[in-house]
Design brief:
221 residues, Recoverin, domain 1, mainly alpha, elongated, 11 helices
């Protein structure tokens, strides 16, 4: 037990140096992770998606899978403690540069280093409200893709590079989540950051209980 505690302190000190969190906040996040995983010290895709949906109010299935990939730096199909803290540091407290890289990685669905016209279509298809009409709804999505490309494709090669994306967002910050919500809302960020800053075991228990209640509700539906 004492050895495990020493290892946790060492990990917290290391993560403090590479994230936007103070040491006591990292320790809070590590305890939260242990509570959510029941000491398994790794989080699978389903549990991670439940946390994104229930706690961080994300709803897009495609993007939640991509957020998982963005957190899972070692590509082992699990989120470990370090990935949990580092990922949360980015989406909860990251600067604009960190968030731009994160959002681009989420939107680059096939991981080839570009956001293609096809990927834009795939992500934007659900963002348009389907109107009862004879017009092909896909045509409206295609129009939106072309408008987006015109706005963001700075080198005119019909796809977005990281440089295109960065330049477009720097000119118009609202384009950061142009292809769907992959960052938590201001309200969620404020609430979560307060919970972590206070570093209260009671708050962690409430977070865990809320997560469990939401999971039970979903299973009952």
């Amino acid at each position: 037990m004492a050895h495990a505690r020493k290892e946790q302190i060492k990990l917290a000190e290391a993560l403090q140096k590479t994230t936007q969190y103070k040491k006591h906040e990292v320790e809070c996040l590590l305890r939260m992770f242990k509570a959510l995983t029941h000491d398994a010290l790794k989080m699978d895709r389903n549990l991670f998606r439940d946390v994104l949906h229930n706690q961080f109010k994300m709803t897009d299935d495609i993007l939640m899978d991509r957020v998982f990939k963005a957190f899972d730096k070692d590509n082992d199909s699990y989120i470990n403690q370090s990935e949990w803290v580092s990922g949360l540091s980015c989406i909860m407290r990251g600067n604009m540069e960190e968030k731009m890289k994160y959002c681009f990685d989420v939107y680059d669905l096939n991981g080839d280093g570009y956001i293609s016209r096809e990927e834009m279509f795939h992500m934007l298809k659900n963002s348009l409200i389907k109107q009862p009409s004879e017009e092909d709804p896909d045509e409206g999505v295609k129009d939106l893709v072309e408008i987006t490309l015109k706005k963001m494709d700075k080198d005119h090669d019909t796809r977005l590079s990281p440089q295109d994306f960065q330049q477009a967002v720097e000119e118009e910050p609202l384009l950061l989540e142009a292809f769907g919500a992959c960052l938590p809302s201001y309200e969620v960020v404020t609430s979560f950051n307060t919970l972590v800053s206070e570093d209260s075991d009671i708050n962690i228990q409430l977070f865990q209980q809320q997560q469990a209640q939401n999971q039970n509700r979903q299973q009952a539906v």
